[in-house]
Design goal:
Blueprint (H helix, E strand, L loop, with lengths): L2 H16 L6 H19 L3 H16 L4 H13 L1
Helix pairs in contact: 3-4
């Protein structure tokens, strides 16, 4: 795992800790996602669209040396 991705994972862990979620990793992630859905409802954001977008970012970040994948991710971001 690249250092930048370890940093991203640690950022997520800090958010989970701040929300006092740290007993059951799978359940805690589900709770955090549900909380984010509520936040998106409140802010009138399309959660499902953001999840799809995050998958594109995740793939590009997992493979930063794959120029073709990174280019496709960048193109998708520009279209949205």
């Amino acid at each position: 795992m690249h250092k930048a991705n370890r940093d991203r994972a640690e950022s997520a862990r800090a958010a989970m800790d701040a929300a006092d979620l740290h007993d059951d990793p799978e359940g805690d992630v589900g709770d955090m996602l549900a909380n984010l859905r509520h936040y998106c409802d409140q802010e009138e954001l399309d959660f499902d669209h953001l999840v799809e977008r995050s998958a594109v970012h995740h793939e590009a970040e997992k493979n930063p040396d794959d120029i073709e994948l990174s280019s496709r991710a960048a193109a998708r971001r520009r279209r949205r």
